[in-house]
Amino acid sequence: MTPLPDGNPRVPEHINNPPQNALLEFGSLVAMVGLVMAALTLLLVLLAGFLAPHIPFRWEAAAVSDVPVSAPWPQADAALNQLADDLMASMDPPPAIPVQVRLIDMQIPNAFATLGGHVLITRGLLDSVTSENGLAMVLAHEIGHIQHRDPIAVLSRSAVIGLLWAAVTGGENFAMQTLFGQSGGLTALRFNRDMERRADQYALEMLAAHYGHVQGADEFFQAMVAHQSLADQDAGRWQALFQSHPLTRERIKALQQALPAQGEAERRPLPPALHKLTRPEGP
Amino acid sequence: MLISNLEMVPGMRVRRHLGLIQGSTVRAKHVGKDFMAGLKNIFGGELTGYTELMNESREAAMARLQEQATALGANAILNVRFATSTIAVGASEILVYGTAVELERMGV
Fold this sequence. Notes:
Order of helices and strands of chain A: HHHEEEHHHHHHHHHH
Strand order of the largest sheet of chain B: 1-3-4-2
Strand content of chain B: 35-45%
Helix content of chain A: 55-70%
Oligomer: heterodimer
Largest sheet of chain A: 3 strands, mixed
Low-confidence stretches of chain A: 180-188
Low-confidence stretches of chain B: none
Order of helices and strands of chain B: EEHHEE
Radius of gyration of chain B: 18 Å
Helix content of chain B: 25-40%
Shape of chain A: elongated
Distance between the termini of chain A: 110 Å
Structural class of chain A: mainly alpha
Largest interface: A-B, 10 and 18 residues
Structural class of chain B: alpha+beta
Shape of chain B: elongated
Largest sheet of chain B: 4 strands, mixed
Number of helices of chain B: 2
Number of helices of chain A: 13
């Protein structure tokens, strides 16, 4: 005799619907996505840095046809370009990528290397150097960035990151436009420390090839350090500079290690077209 | 645990009827598998990623079914059936249900 069931027994509820902490699950999912994104970003950044120098320079030049900044001092530009050409011609073999220099009307002493082989020198920088040698160091440093294709490497890196995050967040894909839009102008591309050191080394070689010595190479950086006390009082003005060149002291040390072996040698005065633009009372 | 889709098991008889039990799970594959499946759609062939998904789901649903039967003190599940449905794009549910019973050998 089979006993009849008196109502279905209760089945435990958690079996098909296991209890779980929603917050914990969210946290672990976000962590996983974050991890994957970080790995992907790192991979793409490395890839971009590796591939960017192999992008043909004419593509880069075509992307930024001209620097859309007015040229207030054509004679000074000519003198700067002459200096850049002389510096490059002294290298053996001469660098392959042509460089165009332009003086811009900014009081913050700085120099930028940007896409298309453009180097921008601020008027304030002329006040921070006392000789052509000091200026040549800065110029050669920026030429170094351009010869190493640093601007395109930095741009590709930011573009890759921008695109990746736009893809993940589903945001508007304006990262590329923004980057290319700004790159023609005064965008101070953030080069990393290795790039800066490499450009410094390159500049020292260039100076040695051109002048036969590297006296005056640290002029600009010394002027920057002299103004570091000013930086405390006048943060706004100097902030930009110290942000884009975070290693001033370390770089001076490296430069000075190269200096003593050379002994004291004559520094050339600034070319007349540039000298007359410096402020007589100094910075 | 004896699991069968027969309604009766030869040589055994139902001593206790414990009612309807079910095991179900809703699962999705990661985007990589979905992407691969999308590519397979172009050329045709077995969507192995999804085959794997359904296999895993069936196993999980069966495990839950057995867990329910054990919780009720059953020693067999009879008349077992499977069902599936699409819950969302790229996610599907496997439902397996049956009747939990206590079987005993028929006395001579």
